[in-house]
Amino acid sequence: MSSEPQNLSSSTSAPEQSGENISKKAAKKEAAKLEKLRRKQEQEEAARKTSSLSLEDESFSRNYGDVTLTELQSTEDPSAGKWREAVEGKKWTDLSHLVEETVGSEVLIRGRVNTNRPVSNKKGFLVLRQSGFTVQCVATQSEETKVGVNFIKYLKQLSNESFVDVMGVVVLPKEEVKGTTQQVEIQVRKVYCVNSALPKLPLLVEDASRSEKEMEAGLSGANQDTRLNNRVIDLRTPANQAIFRIQGQVQKAFREFLDSKDFVEIHTPKLMAGSSEGGSAVFRLDYKGQPACLAQSPQ
């Protein structure tokens, strides 16, 4: 009698355990299906972001880059390249004209990279130099201005003394800009490298500009031999540029004064009794029965 209920109990518990196993398997299967769906959605989202980023970079890439020879030669075709398209019809602005009255206006400027100071992956600073005048240019990553990450990367790799064109908006910074002649700032929108300098130059204008006292104080500088061996760079220092400007103004004053007195400026050939130094071919002639040569300078 007692064995029958026990058998009944065991027979009823078996279907219950079987049902529980089936429900667990179904739950695991459903969870795996949901996990697979979640991963697929994540992959699709990542692909969508990558696709949008590539499209963004493609549109932003027209705002920076190296100027090609074809663009420089194609003076009448605005579709010759992104640089030609950007500068066509624009008016060039001298750095000396960048004053407070120009704040808010968009300008197109050209100069050499005096200093390049990257701050982060989203921001970079350039100081451009033109005929002794300098201005600070700031590039900040922004979708509104179409300045992307690759734009900042390109800005960072521009070497000193490279010749670049910059388009941007003139702003008045909150704090005084130190180290530049112009007290306004350029918020960069586009930058193009016309001619790239070597990444490592034998002489920097900043070093060549320092005096002996500054070098004695521990700042890096350049001795006379280094400056003379790299004269083409040494002539770009503010001191040498100032000398040339003074010489030019003195000559201009003399010329204007003599012109006002009806003088006529002439350039006469200079004759020498013998050939000049250098050993190069000279123009010989007979001057009143004596041999003479036109003077020439091998320098």
Automatic annotation (TrEMBL):
One of its GO terms (molecular function) is aspartate-tRNA ligase activity. InterPro entries: Aa-tRNA-synt_II, aa-tRNA-synth_II/BPL/LPL, Asp-tRNA_synthase_2, NA-bd_OB-fold. It comes from the Eukaryota. Residues 28-48 have a biased composition (Basic and acidic residues). This is Aspartate--tRNA ligase, cytoplasmic. Keywords: Aminoacyl-tRNA synthetase, ATP-binding, Cytoplasm, Ligase, Nucleotide-binding. Pfam families: tRNA-synt_2. The keyword Cytoplasm applies. GO terms for biological process: aspartyl-tRNA aminoacylation. Residues 1-21 have a biased composition (Polar residues). Gene3D superfamilies: Bira Bifunctional Protein, Domain 2, Nucleic acid-binding proteins. GO terms for cellular component: aminoacyl-tRNA synthetase multienzyme complex; cytosol. Residues 1-57 are annotated as: Disordered. Residues 223-299 form the Aminoacyl-tRNA synthetase class II (D/K/N) domain. It comes from Noccaea caerulescens.
